[in-house]
Amino acid sequence: MLGLMQNQPLLISSLIDFAERHHGDGEIVSRRVEGDIHRYAWRDVARRARQVANGLDAWQLGFGDRVATLAWNGYRHLELYFGVSGSGRVLHTINPRLHPEQIAWIANHAEDQVLCFDLSFLPLVQAVHAKCPTVKHWVALCDADKLPADSGIPGLQSYETWLADKPGTYQWPVFDENTASSMCYTSGTTGNPKAALYSHRSTTLHAYAAALPDVMGISARDAILPVVPMFHVNAWGIPYSAALTGAKLVFPGPAMDGKSIYELIEAEKVSYAAGVPTVWQMLLMHMKPAGLKFSTLKRTVIGGSACPPAMINAFREDYGVEVLHAWGMTEMSPLGTLCTLKNKHLDLPKEEQMKILLKQGRAIYGVDMKIVGANGEDLPFDGKTAGDLLVRGPWVVREYFKGEGGAPLVRDAQGVEWFPTGDVATIDADGFMQITDRSKDVIKSGGEWISSIDIENIAVAHPAVAMAACIGVFHPKWDERPIVVVVKKPNAEVSREELLKFYEGKTAKWQIPDDVVFVDAIPLGATGKMLKTRLREQLKDYRLPGL
Ligand code: AMP
């Protein structure tokens, strides 16, 4: 017997409809690329999202066609979030920090038809547009009078000109909630980037879950500053959860230095902020010497990389701000765990509470997780035994876009399919997960991935290099930085400086290794694979130059 409740598909358009009807005057504040502050309300987002939908219809873009963005956090990006997905197209947020070659590759792979970009990325678009044959429409996210006269980009038009004659009314289409809504590429551990393709259902369920009190605790009383970029897994879903709850949104635009972030928090009475540890490090470095305090900030979600204990302490003790440590992945929309105390922990001494708060946290309903040993056997939740962390749930990836990278799921002894995260973790009896290591071969620097394979491939393209292994080493600001360990060919010569210079132009500047370490041999496993764990062990006393 089926239940007799209304069967409405969970669609992203319903979030913006709801926001308009129930908290239409809720504020959205953005620092624009131009430097000024723009403010309007959820009802304006809704109207302009409908104009976007009309604009895409006018171009006769098909259902499921991809619309790409190269944009900071701001109100026009927010309108695209709802207008593109709401009308049945797929929003493809591209990470502008990637090398132009990677961006062109990604745009081609996604077969983007439209590319909307902030003017800060004009040089980047000028560099790649000729290599993106699928893109038919180029839109600069600016006013008509800011459009550069001779950009060299065919048919480039300003966002405001594009929208100007489009009606603010639109009937959102109703379709299967499993339809694709947006996509985000992540660095592959082998080969090319792979895209997680989110659905309307996964996005709306994630938006509900993210707003829960033990998750991000988002409410209509909050003014939220998502410093986490909208090109990083949809700013952790905050734009959708804010629409659902009526929270005020404050967007930092391109200004993510400590001073700008602090000023925005104070000026807009931000109660809540979210970002990777590097951003908060810059904020604290700005505040401490100047003796600044927060007037309104109560909570901050820190994730994407492990949160250093000193940072949790500084926020809690010096500024009275609660830190929520979060863990997730592009493949998980992204939220998996958040670290909040349970009732039984409230009377514990501060140091005991800190030990818990440093963990990555407890699973959110919607994300089931477990740890397994080398043979796939379940490991106990004892807080001591570490194993490969597996997850499953309605906002966890089943397959990558275009079936790239084969079948990503593993089947356990009961026949249940799980997504292996590539993280190694313990889970304690209270369900708190703690990451202890990473089995995937990538480096995360300042919250951004660096593919070790790419770094190694460039090194071995040098005529003097026989073998190269790229590993991450600790860095106080960026968490990790890459170094490349090199075996030279017999009788060949190359210096550290020459090899580092060889990287220039072949990868994004920030992905170039910080150092080269020459060795006689790199440890290899039985199948000839480089044993990075052994190599890391050999170099455990290594320190980056200057640290
Ligand atoms: P991404 O797909 O870029 O969001 O990266 C996901 C990966 O970042 C995870 O699989 C972890 O390796 C790492 N990560 C994310 N959050 C944390 C955290 N709080 N602590 C440690 N590592 C994290």
The gist of it:
The chain has 547 residues and is an alpha/beta fold.
Please describe what this structure looks like.
With 547 residues, this protein is of the alpha/beta class. The chain has 2 domains: 12-328, ANL, N-terminal domain (Rossmann fold); 442-538, GMP Synthetase, Chain A, domain 3. 28% of the residues lie in helices and 25% in strands. It is built from 16 helices and 26 strands. Strands 1, 2, 10, 11, 12, 13, 14, 15, 16, 17, 18, 19, 20 and 21 form a 14-stranded mixed sheet that branches. A 7-stranded mixed sheet has the order 7-6-5-3-4-8-9, with helices on both faces. A hairpin with a 5-residue loop joins β1 (27-31) and β2. α1 crosses α3 (75-86), α4 (100-110) crosses α5 and α7 crosses α9 (238-245). The longest helix has 17 residues, at 42-58. The protein is globular. The N and C termini lie far apart (67 Å). The model has no long low-confidence stretch (mean pLDDT 94). The structure holds adenosine monophosphate. Adenosine monophosphate binds at residues 186, 233, 303-306, 325-330, 334, 360, 421-423, 435, 438, 444, 449.
